Structures are given as structure tokens and as C-alpha cells.
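Q: Got a minute? One more chain.
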Amino acid sequence: MAAAKSVAFHTLGCKLNYSETSTISRLMEKEGFEKREFDDLADVYVINTCSVTDNADKECRQLVRRIQRKSPESLVVITGCYAQLKPKEIAAIPGVDLVLGAAEKFNLASHIKELSKGDSAKISSCEIEEVNGFNASYSINDRTRTFLKVQDGCDYTCSFCTIPQARGKSRSDTVANVIANAKEIAAGGSKEIVLTGVNLGDFRSPLQTPSDPIIRAGSPRGGDLASLRLFKDHNFLYLIKELDKVEGIERFRISSIEPNLLTNEIIEFVSKSKKFMPHFHIPLQSGSNTILGMMRRRYKRELYTERVALIKELMPHCCIGVDVIAGFPGETDELFQETFEFLHSLDVSYLHVFTYSERDNTHALTLGPVVPMTTRYERNKTLRNLSYMKMQYFTQQHTGETRPVLFEGHSKNARLNESFGQGMMEGYTDNYIKITTPYKEEWVNEIVDWKI
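A: Always. Here it is, folded:
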């Protein structure tokens, strides 16, 4: 495949996927490939997939068909969670040439060189138990905000989730390497870093080498108990304290953190930090302890209430986002109402609502009764309406305040707006209120005091 010199990427799913796609893209450019937009013609198209919901699977198949219509001679590579979970299913999609599992996605260039269009799809996957390495990744799609991956995999066994099957056991980068990447990102001009991972709060820095600049004395490999304790203490709290010292980055955000791992110490540190933004995204999934138990979550709603209360006590202006699943097996009308009323009572700012979808090889398939799809969609709509009201109320609470806004480039509707002579730009306050205003070039990647 020596003739292939252009590559285009499309990412489905989470911030973690975006950070990995960006890193793989840079690796391909180092191998001599020219990066192109996904809508342009390219020799190779790479789709980095998600498999949290059935819709993500369908979107992947639709994208392959689109490539086939547009450029039937181009190579099509599928990687990501869907590729790890169902490699044979993907290989059977007409037009797919290569399926890369979790351990091989960062070796894309070497695999492509051995490919020819027209051969049967090649699968390069592995048993997920064998995936134990950590590949540092970060996105540099624009200068404003960067997604930095610091953790991967998950040791939890939530009954609805396939992520441990797709990404393997929990593992983390070293603190020193995260700091080095943050400094590199700062040198590139980004002013905000969003820390990402599958189970971010489970961050545990692996044993580092004695030459690691973070190590002040002693060697864990030498059996020094003091050093072993030092590494044990290299948890998420330690990481954010170290990142807080990095010069050149003005903002850090914590993308998503489990309520049982969001400790009081983390909340207290963020409340005092000038760099870590007053914004938490805390998965809940259900406001019913009965459903939480069936989901195999590691907390009850009472703990969630305590976390929200402490955040609001220390940071009344803090934005709090919530993940919630509608229509989980066994969710009766009464249990759904319990979730609705719980969320309604909480001082949170917005909801990310997911409609439950059956995933192969999950314990949830054995649970019941199954909620009809029409009911799932109705509950989803009800929760999304609640989310809209929550965000409206949160924004109104801060109307008239002046808050710092980091402005990005043009908005998604920039071209449409420009046709009317009204190019727009977007930015977010420290506490994640979205601001849209007429475009000013001098404001791009700048923090501007803004009256809401």
C-alpha cells in the first residue's frame, strides 16, 4: 500500500476517542501521510468507533456505505470499541478492508502498508485480557481546548456496560508523562486541557523508573518501602495537584468522574484552585437505589446527594452535569418517577440522557422486565426536557455576572451566519455556560471577561 499517501479520520463517541484519533493522525503524518478532511477524497479512511449504544454501531455502518459511494477504491479501516467487540461483524461489512483491535490501533501505519484493496477484510485483534499497555494521547484539533488522555480501561462490572470488554483493565499514564504532555500542549498554544479517561477517578500512576523527574529519592524497584508508598499515593488527587503547577495552561477540566471516586479532597482542591474549573460531570445513571443495585453501580443515591451538596457548599456557582439512563430493565413507572423526582430535587445543571440499549455479553440481558422501546423514548424525552429547564435555571442564576470566557473559532453554523454577514463564535465561561457572539478574530483563544 506504498502508494497511499492521504488519510482521513472520523471519530464516533467520547472525548477519549477524539484524543486517540488525533494522536493516531499525528503518527500517520510522521509516516508521510497527508491528512485530509473526511468529506474529501482520500486514499485511506479511518473510522474510530464507539459502542456504548446501538446507534453508534449503525452510524459506523452508514459511514462505510458513504465512503463506498464516494470513493470505492479507497481503503477503509475500522478501529475503536466496536472493532474490539465485534471484529467479525465489521469485517463482513462490504467495503471494510481492515479491522484493528484495541492493542493495534496505534500501529495503523504498519498495517496499511500491507493492505491491498479487493482482498478480504483483515482482522488484527487480540484477546482483551492481553491489552495491558497504555498509549498516551491528546487532541490538537484546535488551539483552544485539548483532550488529554491520562487513564484507560475499567475494572468495574456495571451490568449494562461493554467498555471493560472493549478497552480492558484499568491502567494509567505516569504522572511525569502527563506533566510532560501538558507542557507540550501549553507550548502549542492551547489554554485549556480536559482530562479524559474511561474511569478517570481510578487513575493510579504505575511504578516509574528511578530516573523519572517526579521521583525525588529512592527506587520502587529496589524495594524501598517509602518509595512504594509514594507511588501508591500517585492517585488522581496527586495528579491534579501536580498539573495545577504547570505553567502556560490557564484552565483544566475534569471530563467525567464516578461519584464514589470523587472524594471530598478532590472537591476541596478544585474549589481553591485557580486553574481547575468549577465544573464536574458525575455519572448517576439512575436515581433509584433499586435500579442502581441492578446496574451494579458502586454507590447509592445518598452518596450522590452528599457529593452535590459539598460541591455547592464550596462552589455555589459550580456547573454539575449528570449521566442518566432511561429504560433500564426492571425500571417500572414508579422507579422512573423516583429517578425524575430525585434529579428534579438536585442542584445540578444539565443531564446527558441515554436510552438503554441491549449490549451483547452483559448481565443486564438477564434482567427484566424489559421496558418497551416506546416507553424508553418517552422517558428519554421527559429527562431531556428536565435537562433543558435545569440549564435554563442555572444560566439565569448567573445573569448579570461577569465571568471569564475562553472563546473558540467560528461556531458550527458559521457559514450559514456568514451568508447573512453575521459570522459567530462560541466560548464557555469557567462554569461551562455557553456564550455565542459575533466573530472577532482577536478573541479567538483568548479569555475575555464577559457579562452574562
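A: The chain is about 35% helix and 20% strand.
Q: Perfect, thanks.
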